[in-house]
Design a protein that fits this description.
Number of helices: 3
Organism: Syntrophus gentianae
Strand content: 15-25%
Protein name: Lcl C-terminal domain-containing protein
Shape: globular
InterPro entries: Lcl_C
Largest sheet: 4 strands, antiparallel
Distance between the termini: 41 Å
Keywords: Signal
Order of helices and strands: EEEEEEEHHEEEEEEEH
């Protein structure tokens, strides 16, 4: 088992910065990435105590400093929940059964719910989009719209699972986990080189720094991105 911590627009060993791309960029299946719902901020150094979140635009502004697209759902009243940001429709309540990855895929493919039969396993990114990171472990780290969720692993495509205990991602090639099915256009990666040192993700319309300046500490990375001037953005 390999444990992987991931976040949207995450800073890892090397740094990439992002901003919102102009709305003139059109894509048939673009959507908004929901916020993590993280409202807390922390010191950059041990013991990482909680601090008052710096204001947006502050050199040390963190995830908790920004609320762009809050988590937003609609209960469709037929056993399904619609994500108002991504446009995906989710199975509202899982059936409390664990399955192998192959059986989970078959379960979703055969599911008939809400007058639809085009259900499927979610991708890792899709399932992570409904994790509510404002809820601390042991969770379940998900909105109350989603009933019966266990603080445990749920299958995604490509032998990965999202753990609704803490929102982390795990890699498995075997074992049994829970499943929550989804329907809607599957997220595909498609990028556009803007020719000015930036790349646009056509799914989300986020604009990314094309290169990276090398490794740095987390607090330095926050300041770097907040102060970056690139492509007149």
């Amino acid at each position: 088992m390999r444990k992987i911590f991931l976040r949207f627009a995450m800073i890892t060993v090397f740094l990439l910065c992002e901003s919102v791309a102009p709305s003139i960029l059109k894509y048939a299946h673009s959507f908004k990435i929901p916020d993590t719902d993280q409202r807390r901020c922390f010191q950059a150094l041990y013991p990482y105590d909680e601090i008052t979140c710096p204001a947006s635009g502050n050199p040390l502004a963190q995830d908790g400093s920004y609320i762009t697209y809050p988590l937003s759902y609609t209960d469709n009243g037929n056993g399904t929940v619609s994500d108002n940001n991504t446009g995906l429709t989710w199975q509202r309540k899982d059936d409390s059964k664990t399955r192998t990855w192959a059986d989970a895929s078959t379960y979703c493919a055969n599911l008939k719910l809400g007058n639809h039969d085009d259900w499927r396993l979610p991708s890792m990114d899709e399932l992570m989009s409904i994790v509510d990171y404002a809820i601390p472990a042991p969770g379940p780290t998900i909105h109350s719209f989603f009933k019966n969720t266990k603080a445990s692993e749920y299958w995604t495509t490509a032998y990965r699972s999202v753990n609704f205990n803490d929102g982390a991602v795990y890699y498995y090639s075997r074992g049994q986990h829970y499943v929550r099915c989804v329907r809607g256009t599957q997220w595909q990666q498609e990028f556009l080189d803007m020719g000015n040192g930036t790349v646009t993700d056509l799914r989300t319309r986020l604009r990314w720094q094309q290169g990276e300046p090398g490794s740095m500490t987390w607090d330095k990375a926050l300041s770097y991105c907040e102060g970056l001037s690139l492509a007149h953005l």
